Amino acid sequence: MTSSEERLSTDDVRSDEPLTHAQTVWFEEPLLLERGGELPRIRCCYETWGTLNADASNAILVCHAVSGDSHAARHDADDQPGWWDGLIGPGLPIDTNRFFVVCPNVLGGCRGTTGPGDLRGESGSEKNGALDGQSHPPASHPAPSDPAPTSGGQPYGADFPRITLGDMVEVQRRLADSLGITKWRAIVGGSLGGHQALQWVSRYPDCTHTCIAIATSPRLTSQALGFDVIARNAIQTDPHFHGGQYYDRPNRPVTGLAIARMLGHITYLSVAAMEAKFDPDRHDPRHIASDFEQRFSVGSYLAHQGQKFTTRFDANSYITLSMAMDLFDLGSNRLRLMETFDECTCDFLLISFSSDWLFPPDQSREIVNALTALDKRVTYAEITTDAGHDAFLIARDMATYGPLVQERLRPLSEKLRPPTEEPSGEDASHAAASETQAPVQLTVAEESILEIIPAGSRVLDLGCGCGELLAAIRDRHAETPMRLMGVEVAQEKILSTAMRGLDVIDYDLNNGLPAFIDNQFDVVILNATLQAVDNVVALLEEMLRVGKKGIISFPNFAYRVLRDDYVTRGRSPRAAGEFDFAWHDTPNRRFPTIADVHDLLIELGVTIDREIYWDVSQSRHIEADDDPNLNADTAVLEFHCD
Questions:
Q1: Domains delineated in the chain
Q2: Where is the sequence biased in composition, kind Basic and acidic residues (predicted)?
């Protein structure tokens, strides 16, 4: 696969072909809009995959982005591509062998759900009554991509009322009711779809077991707002816009819409992605039939994407949806966000992308920090990629974050089942298929820590690695509910920890622990990490702020073997374990000794409750009165602040 193919967004290959698997339901009750006014009658277009089970507990709602629609995935080999084919399907992270997946076109869209292209007060003759909630054959209605008829009334056009994310969610709630779904197994979405997922749980706190929000934010940045303003201006100043009433005219505002799409497309890519995609043939553009500039390869690409977009999207819908996204605002600070999510009962998975400057990772962290302070179950990962915002639609990146989604969707019965109880039926097959973790292997220091963690404790593990210690604590006290959470910065370790079914957030300890509130945990662990952090004192103080007790383990650089290296052989100290690094290639920023750490804890007014020392190289426990500063290579200290 070429570098260009690896970066191909699934949105790039969408077409204007009819959505042959689309279904339609009409809602007769008027929709009262949040910003005033109403829509007298609503049509909702949606697609489904899989089969709803008897108690309607396996339904997953998938929400699409601005340029998406209900066609999230192929239904069969002959179907056109979907925008999340890498996530939705048999055996995939959103497994249609297990789940009933529903993806509706949003209110205000142009692919079948009521939008600006519809006739004012449209009554329509076709409607599906109450649906039975199973997988249905396609409804017999015009293809959602067809323009609204112009006979019998005038389309809304630019007079379509201002709608919000809340209005979109209300239509989706009515759809859930019509399908017999009272609680979603999960609500999943990326970009604007992530906004919808967050709006759902903030408005209906008990609506789902799991909320998965990808490449999203609590609100748009001013920069992102600015791009949307320019895009709308490009459309509205097109000479063929005609105040939004262009449906019965020979020409539509395709130039303005194409420019809006081109502008948006740039925001979806990172600098690195654009360089990789366009720099090799920068001065060798692919010439296409277009009035847009094609002097550079990036120009012909954008012209192609812009023109193609106009064949499947409506300019008024673009204005409507982008404005709804711009108005979306769950809160600008942690306190506001805590108020927003305070009553939520679901667990959360948030995923961001390192090179996404449209919805940057810091915005996802704002949500994570609020959820963490509320002690909600949350896992967060920042995926390292050069693809930019488009990463959530790129196969290579889907393969990276997909396992996180799959783990979060493990059967609820499997998550709640006591470890002594064997899975059966569907749970057994899923458990066997997802068993990817090797048996937990603990270090001597971790074994010592495990022994001193009381049952029922709330435990935070800083620098949790692959989650082995947290998993061992969970398994040791399996009969007692425990709040366990990890913090890690290495992406592969975050993935490994999450795959163990543990909550973990992607965070750099050198920035302190601002996500956590005072005394949130009973025990805070810093295992084999003290020597690697930048600000030791600040981190120890933070541990004692957020936890009632702290436990640290660290390598003792005063160990006799290391002393011999330095004094006798004139070499930088090196030995097995945490010391086994060349001087020029070591993660160790500090070289603590037991004596040094003792002195520091005393300076901080800390009481040491327990001291455990080992000479791991000799498999020997070292007593506190046997000069551990010389004879131990590993120390474990438990302490608290009076």
A1: 3-220+329-414 (3.40.50.1820), 226-324 (1.10.1740.110), 436-641 (3.40.50.150)
A2: 410-420
